[in-house]
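Practice problem: predict the structure.
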Amino acid sequence: AARGIGLGCVQALCERNMKVAMTDIDAKEGQRACAVLRKEGCDVRFLPLDVTSWIQVQTVVMEIHDQFGS
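Answer:
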């Protein structure tokens, strides 16, 4: 979600005043994009994620649930 369609989706959700958890395999680029969005007023959190790792996916889902609730 640090660029392209993913970033566009995050921006659209932010425009609707939603809390957003964004993920990307590129942690540096993801953190950069998240910082820019926060400066624009978006309630967004970044979590690095390699979707080919089932363990990482499970961990991120639990982190998102802990931060945002159900």
